[in-house]
C-alpha cells in the first residue's frame, strides 16, 4: 500500500517570515498518519529543516541539478539539499519543463541524482490543455512517466505527482473520473515496469488547484495517495484542512 503524502510547493514565495507558517503546522500536526512535506524556496531550506527536526513535517526542495558539483552558477546539487536536512525534492515540475526546457531525460537524471543523495524525488507529470483536448493525455503521461522515472525506482526513491498543466493555479480541477483515469493508468504502468509490489507502493499525488473545499472529494479517488499543493500550501490555515482531509480519507 502506498504512503499518503500531503506536499506543499511554495514555489517562489516566502521569506524567513514565512517560517512562522511552518511553526504553526508543526504544532498543529505533531502526529500524522500521512507524510507532510513542505517545499520552500532554496534559501529557506536549512532553517526550515532545523525548525521541523523531530516533527511530523518533512522538508523538500523544488529542483536540483543533475551533477554533484561544478561550474553551474545558481544551481544546487542534490547532496547539498540533503545536507540542509531536507529529504525530498520536486523534479520535472511543468513550470520548469516549460521555462527551462527540461526534457524527460533531464528530469530522470535529476531523479537519479536525488536518489544517489538519499532524497525522495517527487517526479511531476502533466498534460497541457491542448493535449487534453486532442485526447492525447495518456500518451503524454505515458511518455513522461517512461522517460522521467529512473530504472529501479522504489517507493523510497520516487513519488509521482500528476498535475494537469491547465489545472495549476487556475481554479479549474479535472473531474474525479478524469483524475481516476490518469491515476489508474499511472499505477498500471508502474506495476508493469517495476512489478506489482513496488508499483503499488509508489505514492501517486494529484496536483492542480487543490484546496480545503475540494480535497476530501479528490482523496476519495482510488490511486490518489495525496496531493501536491501550490497556492493553498502557503498559509497553515489553508493547508491544515487539506492534511486533515487526507488523514481521514
Ligand atoms: O506544485 C504544485 C502545483 O503546481 C499546484 O499548484 P496550485 O495548487 O497552486 O494549483
UniProtKB/TrEMBL annotation:
Q: Which reaction does it catalyse?
A: L-erythrulose 1-phosphate = D-erythrulose 4-phosphate; D-glyceraldehyde 3-phosphate = dihydroxyacetone phosphate
| Active site feature | 93 (electrophile), 163 (proton acceptor)
- Residue ranges annotated as transmembrane are none
Which InterPro entries does the record associate with it? Answer: Aldolase_TIM, TIM_sf, TrioseP_Isoase_bac/euk, Triosephosphate_isomerase, Triosephosphate_isomerase_AS
Question: EC number(s) for this protein?
Answer: 5.3.1.1
Top enzyme class, one word, equals isomerase
GO annotation terms (biological process): gluconeogenesis; glyceraldehyde-3-phosphate biosynthetic process; glycerol catabolic process; glycolytic process
Quick one: which pathway?
A: Carbohydrate metabolism; erythritol degradation; Carbohydrate degradation; glycolysis; D-glyceraldehyde 3-phosphate from glycerone phosphate: step 1/1; Carbohydrate biosynthesis; gluconeogenesis
Q: Which UniProt keywords apply?
A: Cytoplasm, Gluconeogenesis, Glycolysis, Isomerase
Which SUPFAM superfamilies does the record associate with it? Triosephosphate isomerase (TIM)
Q: Which GO terms describe its cellular component?
A: cytosol
GO terms for MF: triose-phosphate isomerase activity
Provide the protein's localization.
Answer: Cytoplasm
Binding residue positions for substrate: 9-11, 169, 209, 230-231
Q: Known Gene3D superfamilies for this protein?
A: Aldolase class I (3.20.20.70)
Principal cellular location given in the protein's record: cytoplasm
Superkingdom to which the source organism belongs = Bacteria
Checking PANTHER family in the record gives: TRIOSEPHOSPHATE ISOMERASE
What's the family? Answer: Belongs to the triosephosphate isomerase family.
What's this chain's function?
Involved in the gluconeogenesis. Catalyzes stereospecifically the conversion of dihydroxyacetone phosphate (DHAP) to D-glyceraldehyde-3-phosphate (G3P).
Q: How does it assemble?
A: Homodimer.
Question: What protein is this chain from?
Answer: Triosephosphate isomerase
Protein species of origin:
Ascidiaceihabitans donghaensis
Name the gene behind this protein: tpiA
Amino acid at each position: 500500500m502506498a504512503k499518503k503524502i500531503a506536499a506543499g510547493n511554495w514555489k517562489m514565495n516566502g521569506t524567513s517570515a514565512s517560517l512562522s507558517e511552518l511553526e504553526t503546522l508543526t504544532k498543529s500536526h505533531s502526529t500524522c498518519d500521512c507524510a507532510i512535506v513542505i517545499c520552500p524556496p532554496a534559501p529557506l531550506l536549512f532553517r526550515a529543516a532545523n525548525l521541523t527536526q523531530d516533527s511530523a513535517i518533512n522538508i523538500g526542495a523544488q529542483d536540483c541539478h543533475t551533477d554533484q558539483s561544478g561550474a553551474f552558477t545558481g544551481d544546487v546539487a542534490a547532496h547539498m539539499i540533503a545536507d540542509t536536512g531536507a529529504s525530498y525534492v520536486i523534479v520535472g515540475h511543468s513550470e520548469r519543463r516549460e521555462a527551462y526546457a527540461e526534457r524527460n531525460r533531464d528530469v530522470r537524471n535529476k531523479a537519479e541524482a536525488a536518489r544517489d543523495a538519499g532524497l525522495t524525488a517527487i517526479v511531476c507529470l502533466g498534460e497541457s490543455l491542448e493535449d487534453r483536448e486532442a485526447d492525447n493525455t495518456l500518451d503524454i503521461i505515458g511518455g513522461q512517466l517512461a522517460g522521467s522515472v529512473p530504472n529501479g525506482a522504489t517507493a523510497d526513491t520516487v513519488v509521482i505527482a500528476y498535475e494537469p498543466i491547465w489545472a495549476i493555479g487556475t481554479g479549474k480541477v479535472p473531474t474525479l473520473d478524469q483524475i481516476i483515469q490518469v491515476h489508474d493508468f499511472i499505477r498500471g504502468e508502474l506495476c508493469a515496469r517495476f512489478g506489482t509490489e513496488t508499483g503499488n507502493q509508489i505514492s501517486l499525488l494529484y496536483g492542480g488547484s487543490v484546496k480545503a473545499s475540494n480535497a476530501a472529494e479528490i482523496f476519495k479517488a482510488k490511486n490518489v495517495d495525496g496531493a501536491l499543493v501550490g497556492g493553498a500550501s502557503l498559509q497553515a490555515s489553508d493547508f491544515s484542512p487539506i492534511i486533515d482531509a487526507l488523514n481521514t480519507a
